[in-house]
Amino acid sequence: MQSEVLINEDRIRERVLQLAAQIDCDYDDKIPILVGVLKGSFIFLSDLVRLLKIKHQVDFLTVASYDGGLTSTGIVRLVSDLSVNIEGRHVLIVEDIIDTGLTTDYILKNLQTRNPASLEFVVLLNKQECRKIDVPVKYSGFEIPDQFVVGYGLDYNQYYRNLPYIARL
């Protein structure tokens, strides 16, 4: 694989630590549930929850919109749902990357119907210039340009998730 490292391990580690500290402060008096959007968020979520000092819970959901390509199909489908009731709960959706906003908007609308007390997004990589739908992101790790990236949980055809950094494919 020919790749260019965009964000190295040290920068990722430092930023995840900063995000955890921000969440600890904002949710000090609450018990949030962190919802990892699989599969891409699992490494980010894992690192994030180990740094949190607040009491919290974790759950997962799986959505799909890429189907193996380099761009989103524009069609979002729920593959697996949450296992817990989020009504009245403070929910933090943990995403690896937000680009067009289509998947994020789908998740937001779906989970809002379940009446959480609050619903916010934590995203490692934010591709603001790709937005087709504006979505609210409370916690953002890094702004990146419109490039296809892999590593730190992000994949191409299920490969390269294991890279400890973010690289342009």
Structure characteristics:
single chain; 169 residues; alpha/beta; six-stranded mixed sheet; globular
Structural notes for this entry:
It is a single chain. This protein is an alpha/beta fold and 169 residues long. It is 23% helix and 30% strand. It has three helices and nine strands; from the N terminus they run βαβαβββαββββ. Strands 4-3-2-5-6-7 form a six-stranded mixed beta sheet, with helices on both faces. α3 links the parallel β5 and β6. α1 packs across α2 (42-51).
Give the SSE layout:
Elements: E1 4-7, H1 9-26, E2 33-38, H2 42-51, E3 57-64, E4 77-80, E5 90-98, H3 102-112, E6 118-126, E7 139-143, E8 149-150, E9 166-168
Parallel strand pairs: 2-3, 2-5, 5-6, 6-7
Antiparallel strand pairs: 1-9, 3-4, 8-9
Helix pairs in contact: 1-2
- Alpha-carbon distance between the two ends: 7 Å
Summed over residues and divided by their number, the pLDDT gives a mean of: 92
Low-pLDDT stretches are none
Q: Note the total helix count.
A: 3
Number of strands: 9
Strand content: 25-35%
